[in-house]
Each structure stands twice: as structure tokens, then as C-alpha cells.
Amino acid sequence: MGDKAVFHIFVKDDAKARKILSVNGYTVLSPEHLVLRLEHKPGEWAKAAALLKKEGIGIKNVQLITKGKAHHLYSLITDKNKKAEKVLAEYLWFEDAV
To answer: 2-16 pLDDT, tens per residue?
Structure first.
């Protein structure tokens, strides 16, 4: 990315984090995203993608956040995030789920 760095952070207080970063000269981009926790085994992404396809939900962006031995975390943006949140409820990751 040349002389620029791009990083993703997840915080409890989005407004406070945006303010602190902005005041300190950072450009803050915060797309709507879902954080998915998928088992580290073949076919897990295929299952999630099939659920989205069945409901007519398109994937706009997906990124691997971190790899674990048993599970991986992914950031997902769709064209219908609210609907995707319901469809993928079993895969959603929340802080208290760890």
C-alpha cells in the first residue's frame, strides 16, 4: 500500500474509537461487517455461502481476520447484511462467545 498502512480493529465503543483515531490524523472507514466463526474443516465456507445464495444474498467482501486451530474468524460484508445476520446466526461471532 505504498507509504500507507491499512488495518482493521474491532472495538466496543465505535463512536469513541472513531473520534480518537480521527483526532490523531487517521482516516476511518467503517463498513458494515459481520464477523463469522467457522470451523477449520473443508466445506464450512461452502455451507455458509449456500445459505446466503438460497436467500438471494450476495457477498460484497470477505476477509480472513485470524486463524485458530479449530476455528477461523472472517469479516463479511453482503448486499443485505440484516438478512445475512439472521441467515448466518449460527456462525456469528460475538465477544462473549469466546
So the answer is: 455 557 677 888 889
